[in-house]
Amino acid sequence: MIALIITVVCLAAIAFFWNIAYSSTRAQFQKLTLGLMTGEPAIDTVFTAEDWTALPPPVRRYFETSGFTGYPKMSAMKAKFRNVKFSLGPGKPAITIGYTQCNSALQTSRIAFIDTKMYGIPFQGLDTYVNGAGGMKGVLGKAFTLFDQRGAEMDQACMVTFLSEVMLLPSAAIQNCITWKPIDDLHAEAVISRYGSTASGVFSFHENGECQSFTTNDRTAVGMDGSRQKVRWSAYMDDYSVMDGIRLPTRLRAVWHYDEGDLVYFDSNNFRLEYR
In whole angstroms, what is the distance from residue 101 CA to residue 81 CA? Predict the structure, then answer.
């Protein structure tokens, strides 16, 4: 009877811990993002036509037609995604997650928090790119670290992910650490060099100025078991809509182009963007 009582109490304590809002992973995310979103003052100027002059034609057309000319310059952005379809790898079923990220243009940093449940057990993830160091951590039950990937390949992968999102954060796109190379009227290459590392990718555009995709070979697919594989990677931006006077995509997808077929591992059409 005593053993049964102890078991019931322990299970109740675990259930309570799983259902409260606090977790060390969430607390770490909030601490890191506090520095990104409040550590740098908002830039007290607006974008002008001169800000786009040095950019390749399709990139310049994107910012001009999106409504950013005359818009206040920002130092950072925060994006909140709901009901994202997310896959942990090839052959694994997709799960639904909540996803929140913060990008700092001035610090060239990116932090993202994943929050979901797997078979009723909380699963949380933290992707970080701070001061040139990238990392990807997954925690089960708010207490057990399943993986914590770091190293030079993660540094480059996280940096190129930051690069793929500069169309959402134009203050980052016009920084000196990013070099733009024209290709043709609908394509442009971007090269980011920061913290001793370099990564690049190609942006593709529609004729109406909308950015269609970003593709790179500089992102390593890292498995939960620590396996690493160089795989071509793309981010797609679709279903544009005007929000607060700015034309932005409402559907974002991330895709690994494996030899055996494409894996859409991140698919969201429900997110809110906030600038600081």
Answer: 9
Residue 270 in tokens: 């429900």
Looking at the structure of the chain, the number of domains it has is 1
Enter the pTM of the model. 0.91
Considering all CA atoms of the chain, what is the largest pairwise distance in Å, rounded to the nearest integer? 77
pLDDT in tens, 90-126: 888 899 999 999 999 989 999 999 999 988 899 999 9
75: in domain: yes
DSSP-based three-state secondary structure for 133: strand
Q: Residue 66 is part of which domain span? A: 22-275
Over the Cα atoms of the chain, what is R_g? 20
Taking only the tens place, the pLDDT of each residue in 42-86 is 567 999 999 999 999 999 999 999 999 999 999 999 999 989 999
53, part of any domain: yes
Q: Is residue 17 part of a domain?
A: no
